[in-house]
Amino acid sequence: MTTSIQPLYDRVLVKRLENQQVSAGGIIIPDTAQEKTQMGMVVAAGDGRVMSDGSIRALKIQPGQKVVFGKYAGTEFKLGADEFLVLKEDELLAIVNQ
Q1: What CATH number is associated with residue 87?
Q2: Which residues constitute the domain of residue 80?
Q3: Are 22 and 5 in contact (CB under 8 A)?
Q4: In this structure, which of 13, 21, 43, 74 has its CB flanked by the most CB atoms within 10 Å?
């Protein structure tokens, strides 16, 4: 996936992963009853956090990594048909290793 958005400083651009449509018991869950997933794929990352001495600390997160974030974290927006989330690096809770 390519995008023309480049996050600034310590911000990360994330695309939410799709929710599972069927429960473990085989029940189909309608869209209106589903909660938004708290996992996503990093699409782009900023250059890093600006420290108090003016230096820049590079981010630990890289595009292509799967991450977990808080339920109310970040700012959502749409670009065309795609929905994205912009988060600060410290709002990310974990990297999912597969």
Answers
A1: 2.30.33.40
A2: 11-96
A3: no
A4: 13
